[in-house]
Structure formats: C-alpha cells, structure tokens
Amino acid sequence: MSSKEKKKTLAWHETLEIHELTAFQANHLMGFKMMLPEVADPALKTLYSHTIAALEHNLKDLLGFYPLAPSYTRKAGQEDLTAFQAGHLLGFWKNAVRSYANSITEAATPQVRETMRKHLNAAIEMHAKAFNFMLERGLYPAYDLPKLLENDVKTAQKAIAL
C-alpha cells in the first residue's frame, strides 16, 4: 500500500492501545462523574469539571477509530455496574504495577526497594485476581478482540452520557 492510500483498518497493536486508553478513561470518567457532587472545594470541583470535559472529548475522539479496528462489529447491549466496578479495580491494579515498577528504579535505600518489591508483587497478584474475576464472568473478553472493542464503545458511551 502506498503512503498516499488510505488504510482500511488500524494495525492490531494500535487498536489494542486505543482499547487500553478508552477503557482506562471511560472507567475513570464514570468515577469522576460519580464523585463530582461530593467535591466541596470550589477550585477542586472546577478541576473535576475540566477533567470530565477533557475525558469526554478524548473518548469521543478515540471512539472515532473503532470502526477502523480489525474485525470490529457493532452490537447493542447494556453493561451493569459490576463491569464498571471490576474494570475500575483492574485499572487501579494495572497502574499500581506500573507505578511500583517505576518507583523501584528510583529507590536508593535497600529497605525502600524491598518494600516496593513486596508491594509490586502484591499488586501483580491483585491485578491477576481482578483480571480473572472479569474474565470468568465474561466482563473482560481478553481473547475476543471484536467483543473487547464492542465493550469499550458501550462503556465510553455510557460514561459520556452519565
């Protein structure tokens, strides 16, 4: 394909990155919207509102790529709160693993490094438990890319509409 020809589909790896960004932002958007009424500080409430608007914009942009994903199909459906809650938990542990892995590279004190290593291993275990919870209940179809992307679209649309 020449560089001037338009691609018919996205590459698999970029599709998966878009999935990760969409799932991460949609789950956090729902959480920020649920917490917004409870934020008392006016400046923090403004930051939450700006974050919500930015995430809605991001999700709308990302959803525009879904029709270009390989083997993508559209289907109607609903997700329940369990899927959001489990996805939020999974996203937390995934980011905890990343944060601890990065922090270990900054640890100069052996005791700090050992504590971070223990926390990292615990975060890896918790991530696996959250992942398996979702996989076993059909909430995270990790081995079915079209269904995974379909779930992203539903979750992002639900987060935007919340």
Automatic annotation (TrEMBL):
Pfam families: Coat_F
UniProt superkingdom: Bacteria
The UniProt record lists the keyword Lyase: no
Keywords recorded for this protein, A-Z: Capsid protein, Sporulation, Virion
Annotated InterPro entries: Ferritin-like, Spore_coat_CotF-like
Localisation: Spore coat
Family note: Belongs to the CotF family.
PANTHER family found in the cross-reference section: SPORE COAT PROTEIN F-LIKE PROTEIN YHCQ
Name of the protein in question: Spore coat protein
Biological source species: Paenibacillus terreus
Source organism phylogeny: Bacteria, Bacillati, Bacillota, Bacilli, Bacillales
